[in-house]
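User: I'm new to structure prediction. If I give you an amino acid sequence, what do you actually give back? Let's try with this one:
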Amino acid sequence: MAVDRAVAKPLYRQIYEGYRDAIVERRLRAGQRLPSTRSLAAELQISRIPILNAFEQLLAEGYFESRVGSGTFVARSLPGELLTSARRSASQRPPVRRAGRVVSRQVEALLREEPGPWLKGLGAFNMGQPPIDRFPLKVWSKLVARHCRNTDPNLLHYGRYMGFSPLREAVAEYLRTARAVRCEAEQVMIVNGSLQGVELASHVLLDPDSPVWVEEPGYFGARGALTLAGARLVPVGVDEEGLDVSAGIAQCPRPRAIFVTPSHQFPLGATMSASRRLRLLEWARNSGSWIIEDDYDSEYRYGNLPIASLQGLDRDSRVIYIGTFSKIMFPALRLGYIVLPPDLVEAFVQARRAMDTSSPTFLQAVLADFIREGHFARHIRRMRVLCRERRCALVDALQLEFGDAIAVLGDQAGMFLTAALPKRWSDREICEAAARQGLWVAPLSEAYLGKVLRQGLILGYGGSTVEEIQAGIHRLRNVVTSCSIPQRLVTTPGRRRVSRAEV
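Assistant: Good question. You get back a string of structure tokens that encode the predicted 3D arrangement of the chain. For your 503 residues, that looks like this:
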């Protein structure tokens, strides 16, 4: 708000019209709190009288509302004239992209892949939702409060490019013990989640149009980060042993980098076999390719002990290992880590300096204490038991509601599984209908870059209780029935066996 003493228009009228125009143009929104007349007078360096007169007029006309003991707010119920103006204003807004406006080719590619509705909600079957209902908030809150009371003022400054040293040491110790990663704290960089790790690796390792192998089907989040860096994505098939290295060599003999999820392939859930791992490492060494290993949810494994990392087998420092706390802690923490080959540390530091400087030091300090005091290890053990229970509930519910009409893939690890569908079913149609019912199921077909070889439903179970899973699968069956699905496949669950050729 500003006033001009040089014009003839009275001050109260300038203030009145300024607020009224801001509301009509929706720069001030319904329910928004307004400054007190006393503070506004001090800010504008004028008497309170014109401000009181303007506020009184706006209150009388219904643009403002006063709440005893709370202050003055933009009215929630606005005058009819304003609503008409707002609708007219909205109808006259320019389109999202005006003709002739140029954005980069990378962003153009991303704009062509608008996220589906299944990625826009939280709740049953969201594949990225961990069990935040069981996170030890009391413990975390105590650690936060302790740092608030006794914080080092340096924690409020910009942090180091590589991250907070005590957290890097804790991460390195954890990875050496739990994931057989070969690293020291000096190689660990703390980042804002695993996707920033992929983005950083892309900027450091790739030039525009550099060829990169990606799993087919594969993780669309990483594909987006690589596309934004200008990489040329080469989809390489995945089977029950993980990435098909021989197929990749035949398609693109010398990729600049290879993006892979060897411990729990997204979205089919395969674990890369030992022979494939060794072949991939040998090929990377001989071809000079880099391997970006995304180990996003290795803590959740149910049939056996966690699989050792690919990086731990690497003797030529070709692997950039990426992990995240989003899946085992909570997504809003936005902290992850990269383990770097020693000779690439300085390159990653310079890229990080140009990108965003550092991750929040205060949260890193809290997380370091959470790990060092044993809370992290206890939390992992509890979450592993809880997710195993939820996984079993989901598999049982799918069998009960769909019988042999679907095939469950990748249920031995992680927080999601994939239900493969008969070829004649449309996973996208089902997922769009499910989203309208508040079920956030993702279609397997969206994970393909090229020809879609399978239809399926990607179902997260980490963030849903057993009761929510059971009720949700029952609702999902109703959704499937309402879609253009052959009724004989879904009306008698458990009685019809689908042949391998159909799935």
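You can read the tokens as a compact description of the fold. Here is one thing that stands out. Confidence is low (pLDDT under 50) at residues 89-94, 494-503.
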